[in-house]
C-alpha cells in the first residue's frame, strides 16, 4: 500500500493521545470500517511504520477510543455524587455527569454510539453500554420505589428515552458553539426530571 | 451489469408501495450510497428493467421514501389536534402524533434521520426537517409566552432535546416487540412535558 499523500519528515511528533484523537475524527468522518491505517497515517502525515510506533493496529485504536467514552460514563456512576442523597438526586447527578462526559469526549461518544457489534471489540463495548444502562435503570426503579419517580413509566423505557435525549446531543452540539455546555446539562436534567411544563 | 441472483419469472408482481418498502429496507441495511439499483432488483427478484417499470431511478426511490417520512410529520402539525386547545395541549398532540408517525413509518423515518445532505434531494429533505423543527419551536415559545412551558429553557434547545428523545426510538423500538406503541407515545409525552419526577 502506498500512502496517499507524501510523508513529510521533521514534523513535530504526536503523542499517543493526539494520534488517537485524529484517528477517531477520521473514523467519525468516513466510518471506522472504511478507514484504513494508511488513511490515519496520511491524515497525520506520518508513515505507517511511524504510526505503528504508537499503536499496534486499527483495532487497538478503536478499543482505546471506545474505552475513553465508556470509562467516562462508568466514572459518572462511580463518582461520589452518584451515591449520595436520594435516588432522584443521584439520578440528576448521573444525567448531569453523562452530559458533561458527552461534551468533554464528544468524538469518542459519537464513535461509541455508532458501534453495531461487527467485531469482538464492538460487542464488548456494547456489553459495557448495556451494563451502564442497567445500572441507570436500577437507579430509576429505586427512585420509583421511593416514590420520587412516577410509577406510570416503565423504568427501562424511561431510561432509554432520557438517554436518547442525552445521546442526541452528538447530532448537533458543537463545543464553542452558541449553546453553553453547563446550560445544556441543566436543560437535559430539567426536561428529564421535571419536564417542559410549568409546575 | 449482471443481476447477482437469477431473475425468477412468474413471481407475483409488486406494487409501487411494496417496491419502495423493500428498497428502503435495503437502504437502511447497507446504506443508501452503497446500494445500487441492481441490489434493489436482486432483493425483489426482479430484473432491473422490471424495476424501472415502477421507478425512474434510485434517486426517485429516495425522494419518495423521504417524502413518506416528512409528509407524515408535517401532517401532525397540520392535523386538527395541533391547532385546538392551549399551546401546551397542542404541543402534547404534536409529540404524540410524531411518535405515532415514527412507529407507523419506522423505516422511512430511520432513513430520513440518516440523511446528511449529500445531494439536492437530501438537502431538500433537510430543509423540510428544519422547517418542521422551527414550527415546533414556535409552538414551544408560544407555550412559554402563555406561561405553560417553563421559561428557564431555551425553546430551540428544548425542541431539539425532546425530538432527540423521539428520534432515538428508531434505535431500539421494533413493531410487535415488548413495548406497545400507544404506551410509548404516552411515556414520551409524559417525560417531555412533566418529567420523570413525581409532582
UniProtKB/TrEMBL annotation, chains A, B:
Cite the HTH tetR-type domain residue spans from the record: 13-73
Xref: InterPro entries: Homeodomain-like_sf, HTH-type_TetR-like_transc_reg, HTH_TetR, KstR2_TetR_C, Tet_transcr_reg_TetR-rel_C_sf
Keyword tags: DNA-binding, Transcription, Transcription regulation
Which residues form the DNA-binding region?
A: 36-55
Annotated Pfam families:
TetR_C_24, TetR_N
| Signal peptide span | none
Q: Does the keyword Hydrolase apply?
A: no
- UniProt cross-references to SUPFAM superfamilies, sorted A to Z: Homeodomain-like, Tetracyclin repressor-like, C-terminal domain
Entry annotated with the keyword Transmembrane helix? no
Quote the protein name from its UniProt record. Answer: TetR/AcrR family transcriptional regulator
Organism name: Microbacterium insulae
The organism that produces this protein has a lineage beginning with: Bacteria, Bacillati, Actinomycetota, Actinomycetes, Micrococcales
